[in-house]
């Protein structure tokens, strides 16, 4: 049996046994509240500043509000299913692919790992773009000379993410950084809400009609459906649940309840108020719409940039855990060999992510693509089917039918969203050159 231990104060000893599968990262260390903050950090990332333009504009009031509320309820339901399967078969499954492999076999293990890696890679790409956009927005507040382009700011954001990835060895070590993340989120969300309310009260009546032709409206609606799922996506729920203390299932459900009650309020508020204030002209980065004191907007942009760095680390942690475990990273996090490993491996991973972000900086398209190819399967389709497999002898015909209905419905939506995402990327690739300054 493998036992992995760490000497650094941020890395208490970790013992792996039958209940704790081998991992170089901490298991069963965090409170449900800390895990709830981790989950809420993803929901209230600076991506939330884009939902007024990417969800509400193509769906308008009825479709946008109903869609966000329904996707909240469905996401909570699907996440609860996965949480309840964490100890399926009398053992803990600390990775999504481990659970899939245990239930379906090696092929499912490989497929889920591929989907999850694609999902997290695209999310990480989006966060690097987001960080670059926030830095550029801050820069043009003071110097609109066009000497610095978006790719330059994306490179700076990527470098900052590398430094953070080197400094924070694993997910549980975030600790105080989760407090900073919450603070940064509140800074830009409160500033955007305040400035949007001011603009909305002073502006003439807004146009809330869905823009575009009948054909483009259809594609935009499908893309917005993918964004609805992306808003609540983790794609790594078992990996997050691995960090929570016993009783694992009960504590994870507490964390999910926190995420989908208090945790979603800021995101919903900034989305609805932003759309109310700017209507169909709401952009994919709401700070580009608001008017107000330069110093206040600058503070919001810097807060969005810093929060993006922390949140990227959360969604990159399964990849880091895989690499650290595969190559046997043990001992002090400050040991020269471990520092060198993080510099080379994590730095290389983020360098690739940053290059792709600068090459094709279409933030909304990456959200659409991520939702289509991996979020739908990982967040909605697989949890329902896994629950059928795990509880097949205990489920009534009606309950089985409900889960199969979810599987079929979200499979169809996933295919449509994938086609729409490819179309958006193709259109934007023709409109903008590579390394575009958007």
From TrEMBL:
A Pfam family matched in the record: Aa_trans
Alphabetical UniProt keywords: Amino-acid transport, Membrane, Transmembrane, Transmembrane helix, Transport
rRNA processing keyword on record: no
Top-level taxon: Eukaryota
Chain segments annotated as transmembrane: 32-55, 61-86, 150-169, 176-197, 217-237, 258-278, 298-323, 343-363, 369-390, 402-426
Domain Amino acid transporter transmembrane: 29-422
Cellular compartments per GO CC: membrane
Region (Disordered): 1-25
Localization, UniProt: Membrane
InterPro entries attached to this UniProt entry: AA_transpt_TM
One annotated GO biological process: amino acid transport
Major subcellular site: membrane
Name this polypeptide is given: Amino acid transporter transmembrane domain-containing protein
Species annotation: Solanum bulbocastanum (Wild potato)
């Amino acid at each position: 049996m493998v036992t992995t231990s760490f000497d650094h104060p941020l890395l208490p000893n970790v013992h792996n046994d039958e209940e704790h599968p081998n991992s170089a990262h901490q298991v069963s260390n965090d409170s449900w509240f800390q895990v709830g903050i981790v989950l809420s950090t993803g929901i209230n990332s600076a991506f939330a500043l884009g939902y007024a333009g990417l969800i509400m504009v193509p769906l308008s009031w009825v479709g946008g509000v109903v869609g966000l509320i329904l996707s909240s309820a469905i996401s909570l339901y699907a996440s609860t299913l996965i949480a309840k399967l964490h100890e399926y078969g009398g053992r803990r499954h600390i990775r999504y692919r481990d659970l899939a492999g245990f239930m379906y076999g090696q092929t499912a293990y490989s497929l889920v790992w591929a989907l999850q890696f694609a999902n997290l890679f695209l999310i990480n790409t989006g966060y690097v773009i987001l960080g670059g956009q926030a830095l550029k927005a801050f820069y043009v507040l003071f110097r609109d000379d066009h000497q610095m382009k978006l790719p330059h700011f994306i490179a700076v954001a990527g470098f900052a993410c590398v430094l953070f990835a080197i400094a924070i060895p694993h997910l549980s070590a975030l600790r105080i950084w989760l407090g900073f993340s919450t603070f940064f989120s509140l800074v830009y969300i409160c500033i955007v809400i305040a400035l949007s309310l001011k603009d909305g009260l002073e502006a003439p009546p807004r146009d809330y009609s869905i823009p575009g032709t009948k054909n483009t409206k259809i594609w935009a609606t499908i893309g917005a459906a993918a964004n609805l799922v992306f808003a609540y996506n983790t794609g790594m729920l078992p990996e997050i649940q691995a960090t929570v203390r016993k009783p694992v299932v009960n504590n994870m459900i507490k964390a999910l309840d926190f995420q989908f009650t208090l945790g979603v309020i800021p995101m919903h508020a900034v989305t609805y108020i932003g759309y109310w204030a700017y209507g169909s002209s709401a952009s994919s980065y709401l700070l580009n719409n608001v008017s107000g004191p330069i110093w206040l907007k600058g503070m919001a942009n810097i807060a969005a940039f810093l929060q993006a760095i922390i949140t990227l680390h959360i969604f990159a942690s399964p990849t880091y855990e895989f690499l650290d475990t595969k190559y046997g990273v043990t001992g002090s996090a400050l040991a020269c060999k471990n520092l060198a490993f993080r510099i080379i491996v994590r730095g290389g991973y983020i360098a690739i992510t940053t290059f792709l972000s600068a090459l094709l900086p279409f933030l909304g398209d990456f959200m659409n693509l991520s939702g289509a190819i991996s979020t739908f399967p990982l967040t909605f389709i697989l949890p329902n089917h896994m629950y059928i497999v795990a509880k097949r002898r205990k489920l009534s015909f009606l309950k089985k039918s409900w889960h199969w209905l979810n599987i079929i419905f979200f499979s169809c939506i996933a295919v449509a969203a994938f086609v729409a995402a490819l179309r958006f990327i193709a259109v934007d690739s023709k409109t903008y050159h590579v390394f575009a300054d958007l």
